[in-house]
Structure formats: C-alpha cells, structure tokens
Write a structure and sequence with these properties.
Layout: H1 2-7, E1 10-18, E2 21-26, E3 30-35, E4 49-55, E5 58-64, H2 65-68, E6 81-87, E7 90-96, E8 98-106, E9 110-111, E10 125-131, E11 134-139, H3 141-144, H4 147-153
Parallel strand pairs: 2-11, 5-7
Antiparallel strand pairs: 1-2, 1-8, 3-6, 4-5, 6-7, 9-10, 10-11
C-alpha cells in the first residue's frame, strides 16, 4: 500500500480568481505571471481580445479570460495579473483578477466536471478540484482558444 501512495500522481496548480470563482491551471501550461501593463488595442479583434503587449521583444496577444468564458470581468486592480501560457509555440496572455497561490494536489482529488448547461465549452474544463471547503475549476488554458484562434493571434 505504501508504494501506491508514493506513485499517486501529484499536480501543481496555479490558482487564480475571476469574479467570485476560483480557477486553476496546471503550472506546466504557465510560462510566467506578470503585473498588468499597458495593452495596445488591435482593430477588428474578437471581443475577448484586449490587445497586444511587447514581452521582452516578442509581441503577444492578451485575452480577457472572463469575457472568453462568458463571465463577468472584475474591476482591474493592483492584484490584476496576466498569465502567459504557451501552446504549440504560440504565447498568449490571459487577464485574471488575481493569482492567489500555487497548490499541490493529488491527481485523484480532481473530479470530472459535471455536465454544465453553460457556454463554457467542456473542452476547456479538465475537472473540479475539491480542496478543504473550496471548489476550484481546473481549466486547460491551451484549449481556451482554439488553435485556429491562437494562430490568428500569432504575430
């Protein structure tokens, strides 16, 4: 039995908030977490694309994650962060209300997401993490934008 406990897969999650909800992504998807900065607006971009920023010489698109998930966006504050994720060699920034912690959980503590009657595509959802009295929605940020959308945002 003790060997089984050691082989239980552990996940590291970056926990962040959008409005009143807590979300998390696997730390392996996150390239960096940065403070909010000036974003250059882009004409004719989708409603959830806030604009672009220059990240150490690389131009990346920044998405308002709450708008992409059809949630109410919180007020911008000193806690607002941009989580930079990378998929298929394309980096994209995701604006979140705040980042609270890096959490270690056993893979077994991730429950499959319930069937939701919402606009959040189940493709984004990896499951729900039950931690103490909290329910944290686990997202796959690399799927929040389709690869076609990400390629369209690539510069």
């Amino acid at each position: 039995m003790a060997e089984d406990a050691k082989t239980a897969e552990e996940m590291q999650l970056v926990v962040f908030s959008l409005g009143r909800e807590e979300f998390a992504v696997e730390v392996t998807q996150v390239r960096e977490i940065m403070r909010m900065e000036e974003i250059t607006r882009m004409p004719k971009s989708p409603h959830f694309v806030e604009g672009i920023i220059n990240l150490r010489g690389q131009i990346i698109a920044v998405v308002e994650l709450a708008k992409r998930l059809n949630l109410e966006a919180g007020e911008r504050s000193g806690d607002t962060r941009i989580i930079v994720v990378e998929a298929e060699d394309i980096k994209v920034g995701m604006i979140v209300d705040s980042v609270s912690e890096v959490l270690r959980v056993d893979a077994e503590s991730v429950e499959p997401s319930p069937t939701l009657a919402t606009d959040i595509s189940s493709a984004f959802l990896e499951g729900v993490v039950k931690k103490d009295n909290r329910l944290i929605i686990l997202l796959d940020l690399t799927k929040v934008l389709s690869l076609e959308e990400m390629a369209g945002l690539g510069f």
